[in-house]
Amino acid sequence: MIQGLIGTKIGMTEIFLEDGTALPATVVNAGPCFVVDKRSKEKNGYDAIQLGYVDLKPQRVTKPLLGHFKRAGVPPLRTLYEFEGEIDKYKPGDVVEADVFKDGDIIDVTGTSKGKGFAGVMKRHGFSGQPDSHGGMSHRRPGSIGQAAYPARVWKGMKMPGHMGSKRVTVQGLEVAKVETEKNMIIIKGSVPGPNGGVLILKHTTKGI
């Protein structure tokens, strides 16, 4: 069985347990994905299956990639990703759907976090800020960042203002609450990275293994 799938975040909702407890959950459109290529130990040094997701106009694809898709007998696809799995069970052109997961599975979800633009230290790093009364004029500023005569420079990695978000983030150990195979939808307990419409990589978890 293949170890993952590519999907799109639809949005968040609530699910209710038998005792009436309400839990936040995320709805993900998982697949369908096409098998585009296979990697083998003999040829590539490792076993993996390359999946593609979301159709793309042919004029938006380079000629080498267009030939790659034609050999597999699949339409041009926007997102490609390799997953571990039993490569003998799949061949190029096969369709992989949400049934690779089942209710109760523990998965890792990878996505690109929401971009926040340029942010100060209070928003970006959670600094408490400086005094906000009695004539203070540095309420949201970071304050001193340097040292004395030694080392007379700013240390690398200093927490400072800068670009916030828009980074690749993985959340581990999320539980699949429900899989709706006929709609290719997966409901996951909790939140996942990224905005609605963002592309997600769903994998069977490696945490604790």
Summarize the structure.
This protein has 209 residues and is mostly beta strands. The chain is built from two helices and twelve strands; from the N terminus they run ββββαββββαββββ.
Task: State the main characteristics.
209 residues, mainly beta, Elongation Factor Tu (Ef-tu), domain 3, 2 domains, six-stranded antiparallel barrel, four-stranded antiparallel beta sheet, 12 strands, 7% helix, extended
Number of helices: 2
| Coarse shape | extended
Helix content: under 10%
Radius of gyration: 23 Å
* Termini Cα gap: 17 Å
Number of strands: 12
**Quick one: biggest sheet?**
6 strands, antiparallel, barrel
Q: What's the CATH first level of the largest domain? A: Mainly Beta
Strand order of the largest sheet: 1-2-11-10-7-12
How many domains, as an integer? 2
CATH architecture of the largest domain: Beta Barrel
What this model shows, in words?
With 209 residues, the protein is mainly β. It has two domains: 4-114 and 168-204, Translation factors (Elongation Factor Tu (Ef-tu), domain 3), CATH 2.40.30; 116-164, no CATH class. Helices cover 7% and strands 40% of the residues. The protein has helices at 63-72, 121-125, and strands spanning 4-16, 22-30, 33-39, 48-55, 77-83, 95-96, 106-112, 117-119, 162-164, 168-180, 185-189, 199-204. The strands form three sheets. It has a six-stranded antiparallel β-barrel. Strands 5-4-3-6 form a four-stranded antiparallel beta sheet, with helices on one face. It has a two-stranded antiparallel ribbon with strand order 8-9. A hairpin with a 4-residue loop joins strand 10 (168-180) and strand 11 (185-189). The chain starts with a strand and ends in a 5-residue tail after the last strand. The mean pLDDT is 90.
